[in-house]
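Blinded run. Sample ID left blank on purpose so nobody reads anything into the name before looking at the predicted structure. Input follows.
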Amino acid sequence: MATENTIIPTQNVPAAKKIGRIKGGYMIAIESVKILSRNKSIMLFPLLALISGLLVAAVFAVGYLVIYGGTEGALEGMNETSRQAIFYAALFVFYVIASFITAFFEIGLVTMVSGQIRGRKVTFSEGMRAASARTGKILFWSLTAATVGVVLQLISDKSKMAGKIVSSLIGFAWGVATFFIVPVLALENETVIGSIKRSGGIFKNKWGEAIIANFSTGLFFSAILILGLVVFLVFAFLVAPATPVLVVSAGALVVFILTVIIASQAVEGIYRTIIYEYAANNVIYSGFPQELVVNAIKK
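Blinded prediction complete.
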């Protein structure tokens, strides 16, 4: 009998039970949270990514206000072409930094989860070292992703409705093609271009309903957020005159929302890694319900 952290060969996988997409998403969330509960340091990666992202966004927001804000903005007197060139250049830099932060911490998360799948306890520091060892690839990927992002933004901004639709479709296709980019960058010895091709190949050849299940997982966490908001609104209505209590409650609500966001990102990373391991390497984590994994892959 397999232990919790062993690898099960695909030939030993039982026939998949038919499960609904919503139920599958719910089960995925619960089982992934169980994995997260056994290694809570996984949450440090999305936490640090969120903090870093917020700091970067704040810096760029201040910069935008300084450059474009008020009647005495830094671009006063420049023509529209120069203004737009500076805007898109700044947008490119922002995309590069944001993509780098996201990929860096996701690679650390994937490294930890993959280690757990294969029976090794990978520490947070090991995950960080694995991400640090791939900074060159992460930077190249960030430049590539930022280039695509800015080009799509330009197409959308400069086009009428048809162009905006085309930009959205290309963006969707890019997202699909790079769905597995982080696991490939983290776990395979591929160049960035090779990783993009590899990611697209995995998705094309072996991916089925997992994206629907992943969406259902998002709905699961959205429901938790809505429930928390409803509880807060009801509580606020009942204690409206008590301003200090309301302020403390609002602070608790913010912490709750951030915690749910971080947990949902960690759970998504866990599930994506598990599915990647099955799709790419025919490896199934014995602690994860096999019918979920098998139903998510349609060869």
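Unblinding after everyone has recorded impressions. The longest strand covers residues 7-9.
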